[in-house]
Design brief:
The structure is a single chain. The chain is an alpha/beta fold. The chain is built from twelve helices and 14 strands. The strands form three sheets. An eight-stranded parallel sheet has the order 5-6-7-8-9-10-11-12. Strands 1-2-3 form a three-stranded antiparallel sheet. A three-stranded antiparallel sheet has the order 4-14-13, with no helix packed on it. Helix 7 links the parallel strand 6 and strand 7.
């Protein structure tokens, strides 16, 4: 008997944030969350994505890409064909993870089972401190001083003053810094003694992705992590010798399929794995938890930054993310 035709349904929602967020694009109070659902008469798979403006994505552009894929999905597109049908990005992630969810339900298995992965276990996530004045960031750090790992995004010239204030307010917390492509090599070298004194454990994307060749042969004490410099598995060749870690985010690399492949290839090269994600609901985090197993750093606190999470969301015990409920994503049919 021929399989039932597949249908792709798309829903866009501006999801309220718990507090206004300062970004390069202004102060934001909501985040664009796009829900996809692939279904036939028997099974249904869901996923979500969040457009990444750094790569030219908007809610409108991602929605248009997803709409353009409805015919292909109805015509029998699957996860393997999807990898060549769309480039890396949020739209491919939303379809890829919906296929994983649907394929698991069709097989009456979980996603880890069909992927040949061990059953997931809880992971500890970093908690992001929103960029603000040193005084305000110190207040945030003090309120979260018992969390084991804090991430600091340095968006302005006063970032080092903020780091000093954070370290004083949370003396025991591990710190990682996201420089978000804002430094050059001279600034990175000049800041290294201070960052070392403040016990920063990792620096994410210190230089612009198109200028990071200057990092070749980097041998300073704090490891560097490629974020914007890594979108495809082929990028691993280009960044060799420049970074000691790679940040893998599903919206950036285009889905769980690509993320698992990149993580495996990076491990073979001796690179450390950081698993990150956009601010979004638990539905976007659930598939990333499979990549996060065994990662050195996990940065998946997005649901904690929302005013309210999706129903049947992930359970956060402080900074520990418990294993996803199969009703949310990836459970057996």
């Amino acid at each position: 008997m021929a399989p039932h035709p597949q249908r792709l349904t798309i829903t866009h929602r501006a999801w309220p944030l718990a507090r206004p967020l300062a970004t390069d694009y202004g102060v934001e109070t909501t985040v664009d969350v796009i829900l996809t659902e692939i279904s036939d008469n028997d099974s249904r798979g869901r996923a979500e994505c969040v457009p990444i403006r750094r790569f030219g994505e908007t809610a409108a552009s991602v929605l248009a890409t997803l709409e353009s894929m409805k015919g292909a999905v109805s015509g029998g597109l699957d996860r393997d064909l999807l990898q060549k049908a769309l480039p890396p990005g949020a739209a491919r992630n939303a379809i890829d993870c919906a296929f994983w969810d649907m394929d698991a339900k069709r097989a009456y298995q979980t996603v880890p089972e069909i992927a040949g992965l061990p059953a997931p276990t809880p992971v500890v996530t970093a908690f992001t401190l929103d960029f603000d004045t040193p005084e305000k960031m110190a207040e945030q750090a003090a309120a979260n001083r018992t969390r084991p790992l804090l991430k600091v995004a340095l968006l302005g010239d006063g970032g080092i003053d903020c780091l000093h204030a954070i370290r004083q307010a949370a003396p025991a917390a591990r710190l990682i810094v996201d420089a978000a492509e804002r430094w050059d090599l001279a600034r990175l070298r000049a800041l290294m003694p201070t960052l070392t004194d403040l016990r920063v454990e990792m620096i994410v994307q210190p230089m612009p992705a198109d200028a990071d060749d200057a990092l070749a042969g980097w041998h300073e004490p704090i490891p560097l992590c490629a974020d914007e410099s890594l979108r495809t598995i082929e990028d691993l060749d280009r960044i060799a010798g420049r970074y000691q870690a790679v940040a893998i985010a599903l919206d950036k690399v285009g889905g769980l399929t690509a993320a698992l492949a990149i993580a495996a290839a990076a491990r073979r090269r001796g690179l450390r794995i950081v698993v990150s994600g956009a601010t979004g609901t638990s539905l976007g985090v659930a598939p990333a938890l499979l990549v996060a197993q065994g990662a050195e750093i996990v940065d998946l606190d997005g649901p904690l930054r929302l005013a309210v999470d999706r129903g049947s969301g992930l359970k956060y015990d402080g900074s520990t993310i418990q294993v996803a409920d199969g009703r949310l994503w990836g459970g057996a049919g």
